[in-house]
Amino acid sequence: MNTQEIEMPPHHTASANGLAGAAMVLGVIGLSTSIFFIGGLLGGIGLILGIVALMTAKRTGNGRGKALTGVLTSAIAIVVSVLVAVFFVWYANKTQECYQPDGFQQYKQCVHQQLTGK
After folding, report:
1. Cα(50)–Cα(16) distance, rounded to whole angstroms?
2. Is 48 in contact with 56 (CB distance < 8 Å)?
3. What pTM value is reported for the model?
4. N or C: which terminus of the chain carries fewer CB neighbours within 10 A?
């Protein structure tokens, strides 16, 4: 029987891959749901996990691409969610007089008048 030693590949920690993968998934889901405000929350969690995964990837060399994707998509999701929230606040403020219409046509006409100033 041949007793040669078998070289094992370097051990990569599952947590580095797991954090990077979770950050990427949360970033992508956060970005796709950012117009519903939940994307900002998912993006925030993804951003934190992505930053931790990037620091881990710096030490282990594992998961850098996924972590970077998670950080970028999460950051974009947060920005889009904030912009959507600002738009909704602006729109609600601009059309607050139109919230008690008798019908949809009246509401539509009121909103048009409020937004165009006519």
Report:
1. 10
2. no
3. 0.75
4. N
